[in-house]
Design a protein that fits this description.
Jelly Rolls, 9 strands, mainly beta, 2 domains
């Protein structure tokens, strides 16, 4: 039996997992249906279902990048809508989304990449959500009546980073308060990503 690899690198962890848990449905079997949450995958196979780890230097992780949270906040009365714009630093790569709501009704949201084009020559603006999506579905957030100010969810990570690499990149966040109560709903949408340092040499 081969000796298990040691160390804390990604490759070593994947090799150890593969040595103990051989997958019953290899990823190359494209015509085989399998349940990705069942214990039929290696550790690396599990991770690959969530995020692409095959690249040693995926976009947004190169030298000269640093983490950043970009936040859009609104205080909306019942059943009202507003638009919020976020201007990004250079070469922002979106990794994760999260949000919070202070009212039980929550809110719906739409996201747009305002500078990207569907094809060359087209009008700028790419929809990241085709319609308004309930915040619990889009951001993984939930409402806890016991502690309204803290309502929100753990960050929901994208499988691949979404690059906002165009000049003067900007995101448009459209939020609609779904609550019908008398109190205003404090809504916050947070975008987590990596951005090129402002003082990084060209």
């Amino acid at each position: 039996m081969a000796q298990n690899p040691t160390g804390y690198s990604q490759d070593a962890a994947a090799a150890r997992s593969a040595s103990f848990h051989q997958p019953m449905n290899p990823s190359c079997g494209t015509k085989v249906l399998f349940h990705t949450l069942a214990r039929l995958l290696t550790l690396h196979g599990y991770q690959d279902q969530v995020y692409h780890l095959g690249q040693k230097h995926p976009p947004g992780f190169e030298d000269g990048y640093c983490p950043v949270w970009e936040v859009a906040t609104a205080l909306l009365p019942a059943r009202t809508t507003t638009q919020l714009r976020i201007n990004f630093q250079r070469e922002f790569h979106l990794f994760a989304l999260t949000a919070s709501s202070s009212a039980a009704g929550g809110f719906r949201a739409q996201l747009y990449d305002m500078k990207k084009q569907y094809c060359p020559g087209a009008k700028p603006g790419v929809r990241l959500t085709a319609r308004g999506v309930n915040f619990s579905n889009l951001f993984g957030a939930a409402f806890n009546p016991a502690a309204p100010p803290s309502n929100g969810g753990a960050a929901w990570f994208l499988r691949e980073p979404h690059p906002f690499t165009e000049k003067n990149a900007q995101a448009l966040v459209v939020v609609q308060n779904q609550d019908t109560g008398g109190a205003s709903n404090q809504i916050q949408v947070a975008l987590y990503g990596q951005v090129r340092r402002f003082n990084y040499p060209d």
